[in-house]
Amino acid sequence: MSGSQRVAVVEDDAALRQNYADVFARQGYQVEGYSDRVTAVAAFTAVLPDLVVVDIGLGDEVDGGFMLCQWLRAQSGTLPIIIVSARDDDYDIVSGLRMGADDYVTKDVSLPNLVARVAALFRRVEAMREFADPARFDRFSNRLSVGDLDIDGDRISCQFGGAAVDLTLTEFWMVWSLVEHPGHVRSRDQLMQGSHIVVDDATITTHVKRIRRKFKAVAAGFTCIESVYGLGYRWNADNV
Q: For the whole model, what pTM was predicted?
């Protein structure tokens, strides 16, 4: 299937951009490379790729990758985005995820690891398509309701107490993974598997914090996502 999947690499270092392009091409992806945000936006305005790998600093734009990520997320709530940057402090990682990135890795990541993360994000997109395929799923099997939560796999939508919760694709699948087994502890590995992503523990923690904040924005007393020390997280519908 990778032959039909288009990966865009936005990186101002020509050698590194070509290196990424070569390794993705060897996996069978169609690869497009861009050296700056303006050129990338012009191309993406015409046709969005299937996945974007983007650096933060792009030429003279110190935070050009953040700006591009935010623009891309406005165009599509489900487009997989991976930030690959030399900047490794918590502020940049949190900022990247806030801008809508699904994953954030530093440039010392091995190429096999990066390829695995790309493949995992594509598997998640495929899983989303399967949810929407009526030939594979019963009409109601891809909707979950637990307490005040209603989550719809067809529309990739989530409501809590009747109010919409604006989740990114990664956040949506993490919530789904928790709600599928209410009251059961889900380890970080299980959350990764359920969300079809490959990230480190710190990134999982950051995503969970953002998910909690988004629920609290519509329900101030929200405490349904519990941390279980040393084990992971669980959804407790009784905590309202």
A: 0.63
